[in-house]
Design the sequence.
């Protein structure tokens, strides 16, 4: 996948793994593969269902995918 025009595709993957490393892996001292697996599962659930993104108009990816609109906080 190192062909011409592939560099922009890597931006999203690099951003994802930066977020995983600094938002979860470096913050937790996982001692076993099982702990790592469970921790990453929880992080990816948070990443897709709870974390709000400025580029998505403060919505989560799940809200964008399902077309749901969240209520504005008062």
Sequence:
């Amino acid at each position: 996948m190192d062909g011409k025009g592939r560099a922009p595709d890597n931006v999203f993957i690099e951003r994802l793994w930066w977020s995983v490393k600094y938002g979860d892996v470096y913050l937790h001292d996982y001692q076993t593969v099982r702990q790592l697996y469970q921790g990453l599962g929880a992080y990816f659930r948070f990443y897709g269902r709870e974390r709000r993104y400025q580029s998505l108009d403060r919505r989560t990816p799940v809200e964008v995918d399902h077309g749901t609109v969240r209520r504005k906080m008062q």
DSSP finds three helices and no strands in the chain. The chain has a mean pLDDT of 83. Residues 13 and 43 are 16 Å apart (CA to CA). The helical segments are 7-23, 33-49, 61-66.
